[in-house]
Amino acid sequence: MRGKFLKVAVAATATAMLATACSGGGDDNNEPAGESGGTLRVYNAEPAFLTPSGGDDEPSLYVIRQLYRGLVKYNAETSAVEMDIAESVESTDQKLWTIKLKSGYTFDNGEPVNADAFLRSWNYAAYGPNAQNNGYFMKRIAGKADVAPADPDGEGPKEAPKPSAETMSGLKKVDDLTFTVELDAPFSGFPTTIGYPGFFPMAQACVDDIAACNEKPIGNGPYKIDGSWQHNVAINLVRSDTWKGEPGKPDRIEYRIFADIDAGYAAFQAGELDVLYTLPPARYKEAQAQYGDRMYEQPGDSFTYVGMPLYQDTFKDKRIRQALSLSIDRQSIIDAVFDGRFTPASGYVAPTFEGAREGVCKYCTKDVEKAKQLLAEAGGWPAGEKLILWANAGAGHDLWLQAVGDQIKEALGIDYELKVNLQFAEYLETADQKKFTGGFRLGWGPDYPFMETFLYPLYGTGAGSNNSGYSNEAFDNLMKQGDSAESIQAAIPSYQQAEDILGEDLPVIPMWWNKVGAVYSENVDQFVWNAVSDADYGAISLKQN
Question: Which of 216, 279, 290, 361 has the least C-beta neighbours within 10 A?
Fold first, then answer.
């Protein structure tokens, strides 16, 4: 999940993968669930999309998770995979999966949530000409290459061939409530991945007019949109009267959209918001002192990195990337800008995940002499060329990115320039179109609870969030090897070997792992945080007068 810049038999293996927490208004998580009712007012940035096939950024996913529901969900306390709309997800060989649905679920417009709803959604996302951000999540399904042929030269002059099919051959309807999914190869983690919103169903009316559905979503979840998306202002949801699962706690959720986090924090201080899921770096200590037991904290699994645009000639030599990384003292920046709250990253998988290791990146500890040596071996930095450092506007990233630039300049004599003028949606578009001209700030959070979520989506050849343009056949092969292991645990050694390749190649420069810091108002009775999907607005209850 971009933007933190986005988790049966599977439950037993998923439970250990994340350190999770669910917090209420007090310390006792065994308290009975809070009462229902009221309006919950929450901070949000402007989303990029409100459709399951398109939305892969944090502001989008926060809304989509309340409007839509999928086959499985993730337990807030354990991160275990639990059935949601699915009755069962089963396989005898981990390659051919049979999915049976619960009956009686519908979309807001009355269409049934049946096998067709999932098949059409997954096929729509996968079909290349539709250019949906979440299409790459379908990569393991047989026939994906037929609906979205690979581009033969990336960003080069050649074009990908036209699709030879409109639907994936691996998806088959058995009956109204049953369908099968055939994968290209066995994948033990498949049931864990399908709780990600890219796998949520879509109504036929939505697929028929995706632009209209993006403005006024036709959901199948516990909430429905009230009116339509008020761009850069608000998105308002009300409880759905057609949802037959566990109802949401608030009667209404109002996503109030802000251009920057400082404005959001000011609104929270003024009593205009009930939940602020993140904080301005410079206001953290103030918030900690002011809100005390209404501040929720825990070690996070959100990864901040400086991406390297490998599609730019300057960054193609890995020694350049290694030199830049070796010039950075992560802990000093964390201490100066974030009051020491974060954990320096020395690898690519969150420390809270099973399979994570320290020291994977041997270029992530400051060593100026080594940096100078590598830069010289690579032929030096182009004379007269500044290092451009990009970040999205309004989130406070300019503070630490300036520190990164200062350290590189001091160590290597490379002058730099910050480019922090794009709002998040436009910034993501720049990333997708691979138009960065220098290092770029992005973040990543888990989409599902096992370590693969930190690897292939960002670094697999052609993967949807591979914004650096990285491609390494050995990495891809190790990921496939891990995918085909007999269990999630058995896959870990292959995934770790793939991570070792990243630690040498540095397609992105690891910076740190966050610490969750969210605040909630006195109106909140029980605050709920899900380690996979973060603040769980539909489960948060309000005090009733």
Answer: 290
Per-residue DSSP letter, 543: -
Closest CA to 396 of 339, 349, 436: 339
Which residues lie closer than 8 Å to 121 by C-beta, 6 or more apart? Answer: 52, 53, 199, 200, 201, 202, 207
The model scores a pTM over 0.85: no
What span, in angstroms and rounded, lies between the C-alpha atoms of 482 and 495?
A: 6
- State how far the alpha carbon of 497 is from the alpha carbons of 348, 360, 453, 455, 501, in Å: 12, 10, 15, 11, 7
From its phi and psi, is residue 413 left (phi > 0), alpha (psi between -120 and 50) or beta?
left
- Chain mean position to CA 283: 25
Q: Which amino acid is at 9?
A: A
Diameter over CA atoms, the chain: 69
- Phi and psi, residue 392, nearest 5°: -75, 150
Q: Per residue of the chain (545 residues), give pLDDT as tens.
A: 543 333 222 332 322 232 222 333 333 333 445 678 999 999 999 999 999 999 999 999 999 999 999 999 999 888 889 999 999 999 999 999 999 999 999 999 999 999 999 999 999 999 999 999 999 899 999 999 999 998 776 656 678 789 999 999 999 999 999 999 999 999 999 999 999 999 999 999 999 999 999 999 999 999 999 999 999 999 999 999 999 999 999 999 999 999 999 999 999 999 999 999 999 888 988 999 999 999 999 888 889 999 999 999 999 999 999 999 999 999 999 999 988 989 999 999 999 889 999 999 999 999 999 999 999 999 999 999 999 999 999 888 999 999 999 999 999 999 999 999 999 889 989 998 999 999 999 999 888 888 999 999 999 998 888 999 999 999 999 999 999 998 889 999 999 999 999 999 999 999 999 888 999 999 999 999 998 888 999 999 999 87
- Measure CA 11 to chain center: 21
Query: In what order do the strands lie in the sheet containing 86-91?
Result: 86-91, 96-101, 178-182, 171-175
Cα distance between residue 345 and residue 406, in whole Å: 20
3-state helix, strand, coil in the chain (%, to 5): 35, 20, 45
